[in-house]
């Protein structure tokens, strides 16, 4: 079943949940052929297949978030002839191991790794424990403009760019911001090629690092710069180019998180929310919150409906920073 999400009709969602079990694989193949890359799918065992895919067509890229039960997908020569992709594929593994067979051997992909391959060269991928990944289809012409390469001669495995995964995942969320220029430069950076606009990559990497460490009250420019491997001067320039500064960005993101927490778990004391979002002082937090939102933190709690009141404990207030299942869903 295909439906639009709340992202103004941009993101399309396909799920096998309400489809006849006997036709799920067939319809999953049909969907991927039309929305991403044509593949042949085979099951591992007798358990019915269950899969969900979010798709987003941008001006130059196609994005997908794919979740599914255990299965194998193949892109053999006959499928390539019938359904050429004329593209490079980037797969970012979020959960579960996967194998990748190609004419040069076999690779094992684990969470936190990315695979870049030519989508028109035969391959097989297997997910014995299911999959949860982000996929990006880069048209060959776009890839050439980014990197100067027509394709990749052999599959490339890299440590997943947190910034790339976060930027793609955000775009696929309902109401999420879409930053295609950042995605393009981050893909080029992942291949090891020199990018035309390094400041865009620096900014995306810094934002991802900040999100992963937002609850740390010791988050400073020195730490962010060291964390992403650039100088503080380059870091400052990257944020200045976006019309802001690193301290203002960190403050805004902490306040936004605090607002969400106060609305979602209103029984949590304001001081606990402030601390969970990296604030040392409750007084400063309350003042900054009112300046940003025009209301007090306690007003957000009072506006929550009784059905919103649900108990929470400890780390659940802030959530685990950098957890893929939360960050990219």
Automatic annotation (TrEMBL):
GO terms for molecular function: DNA-binding transcription factor activity; sequence-specific DNA binding. InterPro entries: AraC-bd_2, AraC_XylS_family_regulators, Homeodomain-like_sf, HTH_AraC, Tscrpt_reg_AraC-type_HTH. Keywords: DNA-binding, Transcription, Transcription regulation. The keyword DNA-binding applies. Residues 300-329 are annotated as: Disordered. It comes from the Bacteria. It holds the Pfam family HTH_18. The keyword Cytoplasm does not apply. Residues 204-303 form the HTH araC/xylS-type domain. This is AraC-type DNA-binding protein. The lineage of its organism: Bacteria, Bacillati, Actinomycetota, Actinomycetes, Micromonosporales.
């Amino acid at each position: 079943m295909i439906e639009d999400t709340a992202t103004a009709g941009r993101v399309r969602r396909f799920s096998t949940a309400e489809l006849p079990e006997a036709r799920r694989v067939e319809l999953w193949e049909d969907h991927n052929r039309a929305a991403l890359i044509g593949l042949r799918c085979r099951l591992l065992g007798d358990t019915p297949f269950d899969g969900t895919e979010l798709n987003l067509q941008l001006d130059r890229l196609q994005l997908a978030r794919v979740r599914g039960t255990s299965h194998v997908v193949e892109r053999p020569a006959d499928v390539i002839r019938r359904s050429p992709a004329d593209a490079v594929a980037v797969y970012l593994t979020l959960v579960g191991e996967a194998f990748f067979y190609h004419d040069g051997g076999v690779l094992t992909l684990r969470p936190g790794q990315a695979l870049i391959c030519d989508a028109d060269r035969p391959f097989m991928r297997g997910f014995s424990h299911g999959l949860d990944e982000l996929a990006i289809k880069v048209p060959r012409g776009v890839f050439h403009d980014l990197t100067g390469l027509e394709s990749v001669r052999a599959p490339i495995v890299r440590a997943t760019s947190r910034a790339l995964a976060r930027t793609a995942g955000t775009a696929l969320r309902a109401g999420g911001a879409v930053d295609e220029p950042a995605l393009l430069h981050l893909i080029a950076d992942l291949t090891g090629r020199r990018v035309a606009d390094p400041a865009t990559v620096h900014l995306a990497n810094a934002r991802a690092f900040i999100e992963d460490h937002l609850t740390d009250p010791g988050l400073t420019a020195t730490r962010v710069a060291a964390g992403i491997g650039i100088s503080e001067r380059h870091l400052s320039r990257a944020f200045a180019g976006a019309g802001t500064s690193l301290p203002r960005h960190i403050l805004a993101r902490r306040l936004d998180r605090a607002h969400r927490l106060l609305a979602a778990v209103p029984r949590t004391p304001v001081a606990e929310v402030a601390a969970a979002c990296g604030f040392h002082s409750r007084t400063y937090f309350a003042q900054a919150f009112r300046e940003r939102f025009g209301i007090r933190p306690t007003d957000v709690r009072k506006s929550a409906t009784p059905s919103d009141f649900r108990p929470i404990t400890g780390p659940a207030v802030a959530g685990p920073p950098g957890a893929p299942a939360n960050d990219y869903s």
